[in-house]
Amino acid sequence: MTIQFNDETFRDDYTFRNSDWAVKRFPFPFHEDSYMYSVNMEQHRGGPEGSVYEKRFDVDEHYVSEMKDRAIVLADDPLRCQSLPHMTLAGWDLLELIMVSKSEDYPDLFELHRDGNTWRWINKPLGIDDTFTFLDETTLPFGPMEYITRQSQGDFAVLDQRDDMLWMDAGMVTTQADWSLDFDIGMNFFEWHAPVPKAHEMGIFKRALKFLLNIQQGAPARRLNWTMTVNPLLDTSPENYHKWGIQKTGLTAENIGQKQFLRVELQTFYRLPRSNALAFPIRCYLIAFEDIVSVPKWGRRLHRVIRDLPEELATYKGFIDNRPKMLDYLSQYDDGLPTSPGVWPDLDTEPALSK
Amino acid sequence: MSKFQFPESIMSRPVYGTLEPRLGHAHLFVADAEGAEAILDLAKKDPGLMSSAHIIFIPRATGETYVEQLKALRPAQFYSGPSYEAALPRLRRVFSDASMGLQVYLSGTEGLMGQAQSEAMQAGIAPAAIQTEHRGSVARRMQCVHCKGITEDVMTDPFVCSHCGLNLFVRDHYSRRLAAYQGVCIDAEDPGNVPDPVELYS
Ligand code: HEM
């Protein structure tokens, strides 16, 4: 299908909306009625047609507006995109991976023409038509990582691999769930995960690191992570927390359906060919509570997950104060009926709400 | 003086040990204030090491307390300076021609050790050649995540950012690159509601 790109904002007047199409394909992260951290990794080898898992880099109706929002963030704070000097080659690897994937997966939107090292890149939704020399930084308006990630939804961390460890040595981070690239750059896998509760003690990070170190070229992996955000604010950065934090206190019984968003990250992992670095795209999807509960199975399940989530996780994810309001709202959409296993909406087979 | 035991914390927070004499062609000591005591203790274990030692000492509030004792160890080179910033060009010069056998010994406050360690890492000194021992003040060097300004010697939680004036709470999340802990606005969700500052670890 051809995508109609929305003209919408993720700040100030918050005109962001999901179409019915976007709601139905939302990456709902709960495959059962409860949630706990786990090493929830699987191969990233496509998925059902139309789902966010189908393509290597999903492009959806929010693409153009998300890229405008990224440009605003970067103009305000260039430190959101940084690359340590030894990471330039990995930046070219990432540029190649994204250009090749998008031009193959969305030929009507993106074109890549390669003649030796002379590359022509056409990005129709953003009106870009650039010719440059691959591996020659002087022929692009930005470094290679910044150039391509200004044209790709989601954040990107690029990890150097050395001494059996991953190091966060480059990134483009403007749609983050409250962590700072500028603070974390240069850290290793255990250091940047230090603030996460429970998972270290559960051995999750040790096992996850082992898995990541062994990811091979051509065999990417993926996982989901989630949190909560009031208003469709992409840039929930610690840098700006003193400005947006107050928005968390604006929920009422009347507005919570529209203002409270479930925020899901589709995280993928790619081994890069020349640098042996690991690319870590973190794609953020937002959905309003009122849209979630339009899918009866998701409404039932989200209520149970949020109700039973351990306090430490609700605190870490930043919604412990708002949890009672969320439960008041969500409980209206939970009639106690069982839910089918798996994440899919199952609209044709799951019963309508019976209360 | 007895050493302070830092409570268990998260994995980005540094842990410090006790300086031990090591084999090496050259020995660089960087210390501030009570950090001098760690050097004096080490010299008791291996007095011979001092003939190939370079001591860079920043007395801070300890004034002359340790200067003569350190000189009496007869290090090959001794420098006493008014501040870390003032000592930095000298430190960089020493790191710039550090050979493989250089052993680095850092002692004193977290801020001093963190900054010297970050400098050593940028100069390519192997982490295994660097030892640390905490002595003296438990103050923290804090980065404001909002304005990026560094506030030195923070003793309370919360504290006021010395650059932008926001009231910040003290996190244990630590960046070795910045040699600083992270400070985050404490009253973002309830402007003006700032709890009374409490001394760290009290
Ligand atoms: C190498 C790629 C990865 C990067 C760059 C990355 C980065 C991050 C960052 C920056 C945070 C926020 C920490 C904070 O509070 O400051 C985080 C949280 C977390 N990460 Fe990762 N991560 C990676 C891979 C993984 C993997 C493979 C797992 C598998 C289990 C994982 C599990 C988690 C969990 C459970 C959280 C807490 C999230 C929450 O509760 O909202 N991460 N990660």
Features:
heterodimer; A: about 350 residues; alpha+beta; seven-stranded antiparallel beta sheet; 13 helices; 10 strands; about 30% helix; globular; B: about 200 residues; alpha/beta; five-stranded parallel beta sheet; about 20% helix; binds protoporphyrin IX containing FE
Summarize this structure briefly.
The complex is a heterodimer of chains A (355) and B (202). Chain A is of the alpha+beta class.
Helices and strands, with pairings:
The complex is a heterodimer of chains A (355) and B (202).
Chain A: H1 20-24, E1 42-43, H2 63-76, E2 81-83, H3 88-105, E3 110-115, E4 118-123, E5 128-133, H4 144-149, E6 155-162, E7 165-172, H5 181-184, H6 189-192, H7 204-213, E8 221-230, H8 241-244, H9 256-259, E9 260-271, E10 278-288, H10 289-292, H11 296-308, H12 311-316, H13 323-330
Helix pairs in contact in A: 11-13
Chain B: E1 26-32, H1 35-45, E2 53-58, H2 67-72, E3 77-80, H3 84-96, E4 102-108, H4 110-122, E5 130-134, E6 140-144, E7 150-154, E8 156-157, E9 159-160, E10 167-175, E11 180-185, E12 198-199
Parallel strand pairs in B: 1-2, 1-4, 2-3, 4-5, 6-11
Antiparallel strand pairs in B: 6-7, 8-12, 9-10, 10-11
Helix pairs in contact in B: 3-4
N to C succession of SSEs of chain A: HEHEHEEEHEEHHHEHHEEHHHH
Number of helices of chain A: 13
Report the total helices of chain B: 4
**Overall mean pLDDT of chain A:** 98
Q: How would you describe the oligomerization state of the chains in this entry?
A: heterodimer
Structural class estimated from helices and strands of chain B: alpha/beta
Of all chain pairs, the largest interface belongs to:
A-B, 27 and 24 residues
SS strand fraction of chain B: 25-35%
Shape of chain B: elongated
Q: What string gives the helices and strands of chain B in order?
A: EHEHEHEHEEEEEEEE
The termini of chain B sit apart by: 19 Å
Q: How many strands, which pairing sense, and closed or not: the largest β-sheet of chain B?
A: 5 strands, parallel
The coarse silhouette of chain A is: globular
Q: What strand line-up does the widest sheet of chain A have?
A: 1-8-9-10-6-7-2
CATH classification class of the largest domain in chain B: Alpha Beta
Percent of residues in helices of chain B comes to: 10-25%
Strand content of chain A: 15-25%
Please give the number of β-strands of chain A: 10
Could you say how many structural domains of chain B there are in total? 2
Ligand inventory reads: protoporphyrin IX containing FE
Q: What would you say the CATH architecture of the largest domain in chain B is?
A: 3-Layer(aba) Sandwich
